[in-house]
Predict the structure.
Amino acid sequence: MPQERKLPTRLEDVEEVLVETDILVIGGGNAGCFAAIEAKKLNPNLCVTIMEKAHIDRSGCLAAGMDAINTYIRKERTIEEFVRWSRSQAGGLIREDLTISLAEVLNQPTEQWEKWGLPIEKDEDGQYRTRGKWDISIRGSEMKVILAEKVREYGCQVLNRVVATNFLLADGRVIGAMGFGVRDGKMYVILARATIVSTGGCAGLYKPYTNDGVDSHHHLWYCPFNTGAGYAMGIRAGAEMTTFEMRWCATRTKDFNGPIDTISVGYETPMINAYGEKILQERYAHLGGDAAPRFIRANVPMEEWLNGRGPCYVDTRGMSDEDIREMKIDYLNERPAFVLFLAARGQDLKKEPIEIYGNDPYIVGGHTASGYWIDVKRATTLPGLFAAGDVAGGTPNKFVGGCAAEGMLAARGAVEYLKTVPALTRPDAEQVARERQRIFAPAIRQAEVGEGIIPREMEERMQRLMDEYAGGVHQFFRMNGIQLQYALKNIRILKDQTKYLVARDLHELMEAHEVIDRLDVAEVLLHHLLFREETRWPGWQTRTDFPERNDEKFDCFVNSRRDPATGEIAVFTRPYEQLIPGDRYLP
Amino acid sequence: MPPKVNLEKCDGCKAEQEPLCEQICPGDLMTLNPETKKAYCRSLRDCWDCMSCVKSCPQGAIETRLPYQIGYYQAKLIPLMGTNRITWTCIDLNGKVERFSFKTRND
């Protein structure tokens, strides 16, 4: 029988659930599940709790599956080589200390996953079969289900359908988190001796070009349900953030807005323009050709369009029948609906190549360097809080294997931290009461006033604003300071108007908080974009008013911190520390 | 119109506290219509087409249809979940059928 679900209409009716745990993991995706398991492996007596807004069997980026692990260090390769490659791909700006510590354990989750049942292709010599330098092919359609089973087997406590909204703080320390049940309408107060945030990155800041009708708003490459909750909670609590301006804009399959490395890396198909020119080799050879940094490859099809040479494609016409079939199996493991998309166009890949285009920009620390500023133990600047996966900054090109490995590292950091925290800290009642009011405000307004702004309206206003004035895909990722100031002014108006949000059911209450969170992320992103008065990564960050790279001023990290007392956002720099010698722009 | 529920086949997972599609949907989009006791997608626009609901449905009652704005009517892609294997049947716009079968777990 279905359980009763009620949206509270009076604050005093809201039931409160108190949970006490040793380690709280917020976000049970890939990184969070690996963090929870690692904590239990280190000490089976610990109580480890995952707070997850969906269901851990299919939540986060791996909901539909994955066809490759894009960061696996084979026997003949070295950590130094990996760092040099990642550094060059990210235009010379990574945290080398974090990348080295990640590389040291990078292969462990993949090997663990295989033992748990994930099928991985092998060569004749028994090594994993590679496709490209660091990529191995997997059959990952059910990999998240496999991982979730292990979370339960290791005895982790899982709170599915509980949305995290804010950290609990005591004297600047994180002592747990608060949120609400999207099924039961209750408020959750979770006390923890250590907290790990692993909520993923942020989709839905920008208007996607696929939202031209009522039914395709979420045709995004990145998981649309990752809406920046972990970033926003950190921002509100005064955590230091880094490199938000390094946005993830990539080349994706056009219209479906799906992954492309499957084809271009996996099957070495060339990128061509409308006139059949192999663009990377013929027009961008000076920037590295086929091995050009990711942001160059991302920007290439858009540049071709701008210069009147679109559409662009990855040329599948030279592929063999077997390769086309294998490629479709890869997609069935990662984004099965792309195979449906090809079928819905009756597309014969030997005759018609696959069209490509840019995507709506995301903030994703697993691909670029955006996120929490952390140390090698994955501790954030807020004591008691550790970060892993897409939410953690400084280490681009982590991808699935790296986010999992970072989950392990965060768990090790958190378990060590427990030694300094013998007991749970009780939160002050006022903090909890304030959050209860903030969480349920849209529901109470609906009951008391009966009208206001629904989350969707505010989402669409925000997405249009960011798209048009902060370098969205419709603007070919370009922006200038005047546009960014305009966006900032309006984002601040939207933030002020969140008090008028209404929610008519618990799902809509979740949507309201997803918009509130994204506005906090957008505000910080705009500050970062404004601060970097140069163009370091064309496409990811293109300032038309400062079109050149300025190493003298900006060969460094741009960081920010919001003052929780005043709401003011301070933006400042941190120096680059090179540990692996060599030209940072070359692999 | 992402997940399309076949109302003949859907039984609302009567024995469960909530239907399996509702339990699994990463976007909290599948839910039960209290009147008909059948599952439906509360917001078609917000579906990611991840097909988690399709894979989880014990009745094979859910079909993913791409939004018409990006894919023509009426191609089909149907998974059949085995213990350690999945078999996909794909029918394109012109009725051409392709089948793919592969391991999802090591035995």
Notes: Residues 506-531 of chain A form the longest helix (26 residues). Chain A touches chain B through 57 residues (CB under 8 Å).
